[in-house]
Amino acid sequence: MDVRTGLFYLFSVVMLFAAFRVITARSPVYAALFLVLTFSQAAGVWLLLRAEFLAISLVLVYVGAVMVLFLFVVMMLDVNVDELRTGFWKHFPVAATIGALIALEMAAVLMGGFRPTEEPRALPGAAAAAQAGVQFSNTKELGRLLYTEYLFPLEVAAVLLLVAIVTAIALTLRHRKDTKAIDPALAVRVKASERLQIVKLPPARPAQPEAAPEGSKA
């Protein structure tokens, strides 16, 4: 067994253990940390498959941004695990049925992928680079394909993400009524006579003279 095969088995075993601990850990913080470990091991497997762009994207996007955000949210919310576990066995049959269905679908897809089929189409520049002995860059070739052959799907995905971002901002935008913020438009349109208003109030009652202390001379 060579070094590459040993690293593949090492990354795979750690990834499977971490994925199992994600769903079995009692603390949400530990579950999020195990999910970070799962993503890092998956990035290592992709590096062995020479998919360095996917590996770096997984580390930067999921481990560096999404999971850190999830971890901070879980730690700040102080989730009560006992309340989350309430009614677990009540919904367990439905959850088990859905989980088994998803497992069967994944098994059908994976088993179909291991069957011998026709040779996959290589990237346009991979064969030529291999024959010429030139170093081939998967990232460069992926970028060329995205912005030439798959430009329209990429633009559609970008528009969908933009709509999702705007929608999320619109849903979370709330105007508080208890704030003392001033509308700049109303402040500009105000007149000079409206800035100060003198109100004449009647006096409350006349002041009573203070009583002289006992023992004092008149």
Which key phrases capture this entry?
63% helix; 218 residues; Four Helix Bundle (Hemerythrin (Met), subunit A)
What this model shows, in words?
The protein is an all-alpha fold and 218 residues long. Among the domains are: 1-80, NADH-ubiquinone/plastoquinone oxidoreductase chain 6, subunit NuoJ (Four Helix Bundle (Hemerythrin (Met), subunit A), Up-down Bundle), CATH 1.20.120; 133-173. The protein has helices at residues 3-24, 28-48, 52-77, 81-84, 92-113, 126-132, 138-146, 151-172, 184-188. Helix 1 runs antiparallel to helix 2 and helix 2 packs antiparallel against helix 3.
Q: Helices, strands, pairings?
A:
Blueprint: H1 3-24, H2 28-48, H3 52-77, H4 81-84, H5 92-113, H6 126-132, H7 138-146, H8 151-172, H9 184-188
Which word captures the global form?
Answer: elongated
| Biggest sheet architecture | none
**Number of helical elements:** 9
Instruction: Give the mean pLDDT.
Output: 78
What is the CA–CA distance across the termini?
A: 118 Å
Q: What is the helix/strand order?
A: HHHHHHHHH
CATH C-level label of the domain at 1-80 = Mainly Alpha
Low-confidence stretches: none
Q: Any idea of the CATH topology of the domain at 1-80?
A: Four Helix Bundle (Hemerythrin (Met), subunit A)
Radius of gyration: 34 Å
The CATH architecture of the domain at 1-80 can be given as: Up-down Bundle
Helix-strand makeup class: mainly alpha
Total beta-strand segments: 0
- Let me know the CATH homologous superfamily of the domain at 1-80: NADH-ubiquinone/plastoquinone oxidoreductase chain 6, subunit NuoJ
